[in-house]
Design goal:
Strand order of the largest sheet of chain A: 6-5-4-7-8
Structural class of chain B: alpha/beta
Oligomer: heterodimer
Shape of chain A: globular
Shape of chain B: globular
Order of helices and strands of chain B: HEHEHEHEHHHEEEEHEHHHHEE
Distance between the termini of chain B: 16 Å
Radius of gyration of chain B: 19 Å
Structural class of chain A: mainly beta
Helix content of chain B: 25-40%
Helix content of chain A: under 10%
Order of helices and strands of chain A: HEEEEEEEE
Distance between the termini of chain A: 49 Å
Strand order of the largest sheet of chain B: 3-2-4-7-1-8-11-10-9
Largest sheet of chain A: 5 strands, antiparallel
Number of helices of chain A: 1
Number of helices of chain B: 12
Largest sheet of chain B: 9 strands, mixed
Number of strands of chain B: 11
Radius of gyration of chain A: 16 Å
Number of strands of chain A: 8
């Protein structure tokens, strides 16, 4: 058996890079990693490095008391190549994240695995 | 369901409710048992008559086994599909198919939960979303609401009007859990949970159970209660996790609704009373649009104009809904029960006068699975 899709994904993240699968059959970028294409059913999937550029598709602020860690952002990011993933935008206040804001990927070390998060590519208000 | 064979083929013979609000000490099965007993008594039938069981829950991985054992029945048809809170409406079509094919004679759809007073574990966490700590289900619905506001200019005030309309209906329902006066300002001032969803945009967390008994329509003349006929039922699904939803402003109700209407031979304009799964205020706007009661993006204005509240042109969630009547983890069964009450004409102070047709709509997961059913009285068969 070849290396499992989830394992390959994490291996690239550990190297500080975001790689996702792209379908040979329909050319769609795929997230999350799988063994077949959810758009056309094909199984010839190629790993490609994502540009890391994305746009905020939707955003929310999870409200939390300061003593429990305070408010934080949860957002859906649409990558330039098309896939969407749940993530968060860091580097600005949670409530300053806006739909359509341009963001860029940052790989962070999480508790169990690497985390894909995003930072604004433009300063707030521009 | 196909229109030719199943429109009007089965009718609802009995409904039952139990433990609405808080029922300390009762297990989910205890509450389910009470509701089932009430529904069978309502139908003039007994547990011995039940040979089709349709049930699921968040506690039992083998729900039809656990439930049948508790009830002491040995069904020959047992369906436990679980797509979240819509499944009760989805099960209507499988119950209708099984009855029509004479695989069973008395179908029981039932659910119980002690979510308010008992302990419940969250379902399997989606591995690619959980690390970002969404406070689900609230965060997912907040993301949908934020996108709807961005694309269509929907306002928090419009969302608040959904909660206020539900409360106004609940004040006409003695069983409803939350009946205190509620204003738009109260909703807007309530604590923010996940922007733009505040505390009073969220459904209740209650205990509660419901049961529905279905039989073939040929038995209708022998029924104890006024028969209410199933005219159409369809389901559709798009995703499991919110990030995989194709368009956050369009749910699969846009597929299930037209299919259910086509089977029923009716259109949204023909519907007298509507029951929509209102886990959050945004749900009602999305479903009004996707089911064709207004154009996409216009539900906010419709609701703000008072259409869905008591006295409005389109009565929605006449029991008070999940927002003000009852919401024990999954709400779908209660949409069916309230529709049947309305079509029997037994809904008391909240009765929609002359109601002959009802639409019920169930939602499951993170806006993931949608089921629509249309019911009617003998007058529209």
């Amino acid at each position: 058996m070849p290396e499992a899709p989830g394992v390959v994904f994490q291996r690239y993240l550990k190297g500080g890079e975001l790689w996702l699968q792209q379908c040979d059959g329909c050319a769609r970028q795929i997230f999350y990693p799988r063994t077949l294409c959810p758009y056309c059913g094909g199984n010839r999937l190629q790993w490609r490095r994502a540009s890391g550029a994305g746009t905020v598709y939707s955003t929310t602020v999870v409200r939390q008391r300061p003593e429990r860690g305070g408010d934080y952002n949860v957002a859906i990011i649409e990558l330039a190549e098309g896939a969407r993933l749940l993530s968060r935008v860091e580097g600005i206040a949670a409530e300053s994240v806006r739909i359509d804001m341009k963001v860029q990927v940052v790989i962070r070390a999480g508790t169990d695995a690497q985390l894909v998060v995003f930072e604004p590519t433009q300063s707030v208000g521009v | 369901m196909s229109r030719e064979t199943l429109r009007g083929a089965v009718s609802c013979a009995g409904i039952g409710l139990a433990g609405i609000g808080a029922a300390p000490g009762y297990s989910h099965l205890d509450l389910l048992g009470l509701a089932v007993h009430a529904a069978l008594e309502d139908a003039g039938l007994s547990l011995r008559d039940v040979d089709g069981l349709f049930t699921a829950n968040m506690a039992n991985i083998l729900p039809t086994l656990t439930t049948a054992e508790y009830l002491g029945i040995r069904p020959v048809v047992a369906v436990g599909t679980n797509t979240g809170g819509n499944y009760f409406v989805d099960h209507l079509q499988w119950a209708a198919q099984a009855l029509h094919a004479r695989l069973c004679d008395v179908a029981l759809i039932c659910y119980g939960s002690n979510q308010r007073t008992g302990k419940s574990a969250p379902p399997d966490p989606p591995p690619y979303e959980t690390p970002y700590q969404p406070r689900d289900p609230i965060s997912s619905y907040a993301l949908a609401a934020a996108r709807h506001m961005h694309v269509y200019g929907t306002t928090r005030r419009q969302l608040a009007c959904v909660a206020v309309a539900a409360r106004q209906w609940a004040q006409r329902n003695p069983l409803a859990f939350a009946r205190d006066p509620l204003s738009v300002e109260d909703v807007l001032a309530s604590r923010m949970i996940c922007d733009p969803i505040s505390l009073l945009d969220c459904c209740l967390v209650t205990d509660g159970a419901g049961a529905v008994v279905l039989v073939r329509a040929e038995r209708a003349s022998h029924q104890r209660q006024t028969p209410v006929y199933l005219l159409g039922c369809a389901s559709a699904q798009t995703h499991r996790q919110i990030s995989q939803m194709p368009d956050l402003t369009v749910t699969a109700a846009a597929q299930s609704g037209p299919r259910a209407f086509a089977q029923a031979g009716l259109t949204p304009a023909d519907i007298d009373v509507v029951q929509l799964y209102d886990a959050f205020t945004i749900n009602v706007l999305l479903f009004l649009e996707d089911l064709g009661f207004c154009k996409k993006g216009e539900a906010g204005a419709l609701v703000e104009g008072g259409a869905i509240a008591p006295g409005g042109a389109l009565p929605v969630n006449t029991n008070g809904g999940g927002l003000s009547c009852v919401h024990p983890g999954m709400y779908g069964i209660f949409t069916i029960i309230e529709a049947v009450e309305q079509l029997r004409g037994t809904a008391g102070e909240r009765q929609v006068l002359g109601a002959q047709t009802a639409l019920v709509h169930g939602n499951g997961g993170m806006l993931s699975a949608q089921s629509t059913a249309v019911f009617g009285t003998a007058a529209v068969l």
